[in-house]
Amino acid sequence: MSSLDHTGVEPAFTISELTVPETIDSPDAADFIGMAEVRSTVEAEQRGAPGELFTAEEMLPNWKDESTVMLGFVAKVGARVVARGSLALPADASECWASVAVLADYRSQGIGSALYERLEQTATARGRTTIQNQTSFLATATVTGDSISAPTGFGSVPAELASTRFLRNRGFSLEQVGRLSGLALPVDEEALSALLAETTATAAGYRTVTWQGRTPDEWLESIAVLRTRMSTDAPNAGIEQSEDVWTAERVRAFDDLWETSPRMLITTIVVDDATGQVAGYTELDVPPEPDRSVEQRDTLVLRGHRGRRLGMLLKLTNIRGLRDRFPDHGLIETMNAEENRHMLDVNEAVGFVPLSYAARWKKILGRR
């Protein structure tokens, strides 16, 4: 443990490396649980969510995924975890992602700065040349001052936000703005059926397949291709994103990890009848409690199959799959780049509305 003394008598707060427990019931899981509570509390505040976003048990599989090294630090006042810092280090990449969160009552005390310094030092020591960050703010936020426009030409971020000032003071540049949208459930069944029928007619020659949980053996290779392409085909603006290579073995390892989470994944793929090729996919991440938001994960249609409304077909089919399996859930949330007008058009046609926005930032290490 490293101690930071700001009082001359005893540490006002301490920072220590985060231990990733084997399970949430392990004797050494307390700091991980505290870290998860801080992350969930701060993200819910930024996004205007009504309750918990992710529990410690739900976060643990991501921290145990060997394809991306996850490192963390927790700041404590006494025995309480009041802030967290995390560093995601993708394999075979020059970039990494840093995140800092401090509970509201403990801000402006140097805790966030101390955590960030540890993260940047660790990133540099690990040979990373770029560090990136994502911050959020409410769609209903009242902005009275200047805004910083994204270089994409789509979206802006209030300059007065504490997160904006924090990152700009440390040499970060704004690269992209994303939109978090929400769809209230249940969707009107008559409208959903009409839109699905229309979309199915436009997508003649393609069929959908939906499953819950583990990827069926016959689709392992196709899902690996799609997830690899998702890492490079999604709009990333100036954000660095190395190709994230998936194999069938990695898909199965991901399924194994996911089975340790209480959350459930619903996947729909669209298949070209003429060739048997999987042309696209979409995923919904469902929490066990119906009053918590369902998270839209990836949606991708391969370039050679675009222009046939397959993205709409995928989304509508998976929403119906969610309704059939989990009829009591009340909200789906999805994040898209503001410049991704095609996918925003799809979402808006289904009924999604803006909830909050995300700013994506980048810093070349060694610069100030």
Please write out the topology.
Elements: E1 2-4, E2 13-17, H1 30-47, H2 56-64, E3 68-77, E4 80-90, E5 95-102, H3 111-125, E6 130-138, E7 147-149, E8 156-158, H4 162-169, E9 173-184, H5 189-202, E10 206-212, H6 220-233, H7 248-258, E11 264-272, E12 278-286, E13 294-301, H8 310-325, E14 331-337, H9 341-350, E15 353-364
Parallel strand pairs: 5-6, 13-14
Antiparallel strand pairs: 1-2, 2-3, 3-4, 4-5, 6-15, 7-8, 9-14, 9-15, 10-11, 11-12, 12-13
Helix pairs in contact: 5-8, 6-7, 8-9
Describe the structure concisely.
This protein has 368 residues and is an alpha+beta fold. The chain has two domains: 2-128, Gcn5-related N-acetyltransferase (GNAT) (Aminopeptidase); 186-329, Gcn5-related N-acetyltransferase (GNAT) (Aminopeptidase), CATH 3.40.630. The chain has helices spanning 30-47, 56-64, 111-125, 162-169, 189-202, 220-233, 248-258, 310-325, 341-350; strands spanning 2-4, 13-17, 68-77, 80-90, 95-102, 130-138, 147-149, 156-158, 173-184, 206-212, 264-272, 278-286, 294-301, 331-337, 353-364.
Q: How would you explain this protein's 3D organization?
A:
The protein starts with a strand and ends with a strand. Strand 12 (278-286) and strand 13 form a beta hairpin. The chain has 2 domains: 2-128, Gcn5-related N-acetyltransferase (GNAT) (Aminopeptidase); 186-329, Gcn5-related N-acetyltransferase (GNAT) (Aminopeptidase, 3-Layer(aba) Sandwich). The strands form 2 sheets. The protein has a 13-stranded mixed β-sheet with strand order 1-2-3-4-5-6-15-9-14-13-12-11-10, sandwiched between helices. The chain has a two-stranded antiparallel ribbon with strand order 7-8. It is built from 9 helices and 15 strands. It has helices at 30-47, 56-64, 111-125, 162-169, 189-202, 220-233, 248-258, 310-325, 341-350, and strands at residues 2-4, 13-17, 68-77, 80-90, 95-102, 130-138, 147-149, 156-158, 173-184, 206-212, 264-272, 278-286, 294-301, 331-337, 353-364. With 368 residues, it is an alpha+beta fold. Mean pLDDT is 93; it is low at 1-10.
